[in-house]
Amino acid sequence: MAVADQLIIRRLGLQPYEPTWRRMQAFTDQRDADTPDEIWQLQHEPVFTQGQAGKEEHLLNPGDIPVVQVDRGGQVTYHGPGQAMVYLLIDLRRKKLGVRDLVSIMEQGVVDLLADYDIEAYAKPDAPGVYVNNAKIASLGLRVRRGCSFHGLALNLNMDLTPFLRINPCGYAGMAMTQLVELAPEFDSQQAQDALVDHLVAKIGYTAQTITTSLD
Q1: Per residue in 175-209, pLDDT tens?
Q2: Any catalytic annotation for residue 170?
Q3: How far apart are CA 153 and CA 98, in angstroms?
Q4: Catalytic choice (144, 157, 170, 200)
Q5: How many H-runs (helices) and E-runs (strands) does the chain carry?
Q6: Contact 86, 198 (CB under 8 A)
Q7: 211: Cβ–Cβ under 8 A, 6 or more apart, which residues?
Q8: H helix or E strand, kind and range, residue 51
Q9: Distance CA 43, CA 155 (A)
Q10: According to DSSP H, which parts of the chain are helical?
Q11: Best CA proximity match to 159, nearest among 73, 12, 47, 38
């Protein structure tokens, strides 16, 4: 089977942000043409991440939550328990995908997941992410190095949203945030995370999957 058809899915649970980011960088730097793509499915301990375009004035009052300057695109956002992180470590050239293609796949994957719960969601061409009733439910941020992507998307499931009030989310003052529990109170968190990955896998196109709970 061609390596382009193979995928490793890592279900990693709750992880600190910075070591996970460093592992993504190292994986991307060390991979070669025979390295299968990977999708990392996890949640993070509380952290603000400031993207390459990030401006200091969008950090209003970070307080006791650490701020990490990172190499993805975009501005500042918050990650914490109850938010699904999906990191896409994909050889874009091998999959014949452009960056915009992958952004559209992420957006549509979230839209399709929410449709499973009869929630109408949409993307905005001028503000990457996914929205419901003009409130943001998912954020996107990517980095591409040597034709390979890392970072990915964050979907709010059932989390404390108040840290978003300490920043201008994604650089937008007063942006309303929402989450799946407010729209579908009976949802199952693990089922939703798995279904989101399934939507993404189908759109990117893999025929063989290996699932693990380890980074080793």
Answers
A1: 899 999 999 999 999 999 999 999 999 999 999 99
A2: yes
A3: 17
A4: 170
A5: 5, 11
A6: no
A7: 8, 9, 10, 11
A8: none
A9: 10
A10: 17-30, 92-95, 99-116, 180-183, 189-204
A11: 47
